[in-house]
Amino acid sequence: MSNISIFIPHEGCPQNCSFCNQKIISGQTKRVTAQQVDSILKRALSDLSDRAERAQIAFFGGSFTAIDREYMTELLEAAAPYANRFDGIRVSTRPDAVDEEVLSLLKSYSVKAVELGAQSMNDEVLRKNNRGHTAEDVRNACRLIRKAGMELGVQMMTGLYGANALSDTYTAEELIKLSPDTVRIYPTVVLRATELDTLFRAGRFTPQTLDEAVELCVNLIEMFESAGVKIIRLGLHASTDIEKNYVAGAYHPAFKELCLSRIYFRRVMNEIGALPCGKYTVYVNPGCLSQAIGQHSDNVIRFRKMGYDIKFKPQNSLEKYEIRINRECF
């Protein structure tokens, strides 16, 4: 699934969350207009041609259902005529800005999916990060979206102020209980001009390292995928704005690839760890070969340091994450 993303940075947000600087994340500072929405979608239709039906119109960046109702309706009216040319419309919003009335309105404009910025299911973590809603608000909103027959997406963050690996794992467990269709997982990144920036510089907040975030997110990937929840985003979208305003935390432009590579490292390690050092060939699905090798051959190098000379090769009969190991005799 791809998105025709239309950003409405910080629109409708009643809070100033500790981590948030939407103008940096989205790279957009001005309020989008209905006319701009029309232009964006016309251009997307032209660019995508016969692939348009596989993309969704997506309003991201703010709390869509919490923005001024007249402005929200203007945006929906601009997008709705294109909805049947694309795969409908999706919006992201706050858990405490969802009720039956607004969901009915969204459906009347061909909104197909609603994503909730849950971030955490720990009330103390939510409070410390100025989220302004509770875990129960997330549960209630998910029930209403399900009742309305709409696709449910959830978003969570790891490594927030006051969080740890246990509370982040608990968040994933609680979100899985709500049976979402999709999830986005964002390790916390400290950006300039945010409250986390202030806390970090004052020595009151220690963000996750990149390696800590990868290790945790590998566990979360396995949890969500085992539950049949599709992971549609891992890590912030790479941009020069984020890189220019990055202060600290688990940011990497290819974070998802790091996580998938770590999964392969773990799986090979589980199989090869009890075997003697030497030369081995590890076969993987052809589409996963680069992930198995790792960025800059990271997995190959790590195994070599442990005494294992490994070559990764493709094999069509293998599924995602599946491996087959042969010891080479010379």
Give a verbal description of the structure.
This protein has two domains: 2-253, TIM Barrel, CATH 3.20.20; 272-327, no CATH class. Helix content is 40%, strand content 22%. It is built from 13 helices and twelve strands. It has helices at residues 22-26, 34-48, 69-79, 100-108, 123-128, 135-147, 165-177, 195-201, 210-226, 240-245, 255-272, 289-293, 298-305, and strands at residues 2-7, 55-60, 89-93, 111-119, 151-158, 182-187, 189-191, 230-234, 246-249, 278-284, 308-314, 323-327. Strands 1-2-3-4-5-6-8 form a seven-stranded parallel sheet. Strands 11-10-12 form a three-stranded mixed sheet. Strands 7-9 form a two-stranded antiparallel sheet.
Radius of gyration: 22 Å
The DSSP helix count reads 13
Name of the CATH architecture of the largest domain: Alpha-Beta Barrel
Total domain modules: 2
Give the assembly state of these chains: single chain
Question: Could you give the count of β-strands?
Answer: 12
Largest sheet geometry: 7 strands, parallel
What general outline do the C-alpha atoms trace? globular
Percent helix among the residues?
40-55%
Topology order in helix (H) and strand (E) letters: EHHEHEHEHHEHEEHHEHEHEHHEE
Instruction: Classify the secondary structure makeup into a structural class.
Output: alpha/beta
Mean pLDDT: 94
End-to-end Cα distance, whole Å, is: 46 Å
CATH structural fold name of the largest domain: TIM Barrel
Beta-strand percentage? 15-25%
CATH hierarchy class name of the largest domain: Alpha Beta
What name goes with the CATH superfamily of the largest domain? Aldolase class I
- Strand order, sheet with most strands: 1-2-3-4-5-6-8
